[in-house]
Amino acid sequence: NKRIAPDEKIEAFELDYDGKRDRWNGYDPATYARVIDRYEARDEARRKYQKEQQLKKLEEKNNNPEKGEGEDSDGDDDDEDALKVDEAKVDESEQMDFAKVEKRVRTTGGGSTGTVRNLRIREDTAKYLLNLD
């Protein structure tokens, strides 16, 4: 217990008002360059893997006509059907966005939007008063 030293090096900085609030104080751009290199390497590996997968699919397509042409055409139809289903889902979601009818509601906050379905006319009785049985 003779040589006890702190684990961390504590540095005292004499910074002015702006220096204390500087977000980029102590930033080293070399560390960001390493991050960029790591992401580029990952993207390159991903591209290489996808290219290998595409080559495997092409090889399988080239080998399938030898086994039977009917099987290959069914596979193409499945891919086309899947694409059509995806397109239909996109079309339905776009139509759902346009199906909402929004109306301005006068409020003290300057007006908010809400669907017409949720609004009631002032003369109508409130929902919580309808069924008092």
Q: How would you describe the overall organization of this protein?
A:
The protein has 133 residues and is mainly α. The protein has a domain at 36-63. Helices cover 56% and strands 6% of the residues. The chain contains three helices and two strands. The protein has helices spanning 17-20, 29-67, 69-99; strands at residues 102-105, 112-115. Strands 1-2 form a two-stranded antiparallel sheet. A hairpin with a 6-residue loop joins strand 1 and strand 2 (112-115). Helix 2 crosses helix 3 (69-99). The longest helix has 39 residues, at 29-67. The radius of gyration is 33 Å and the shape is flat. The termini are far apart. 0% of the residues are buried. The model is unreliable at 70-74 (pLDDT under 50).
Radius of gyration: 33 Å
**Proportion of helical residues:** 55-70%
* Mean model confidence by pLDDT: 75
Which residue ranges are poorly predicted, with pLDDT under 50 across at least 5 consecutive positions? 70-74
Helix and strand pattern: HHHEE
Straight-line N-to-C gap:
82 Å
Shape: flat
Domain Pre-mRNA-splicing factor SLU7: 15-133
Biased composition (Basic and acidic residues): 44-70, 82-105
Region (Disordered): 44-115
Pfam families: Slu7
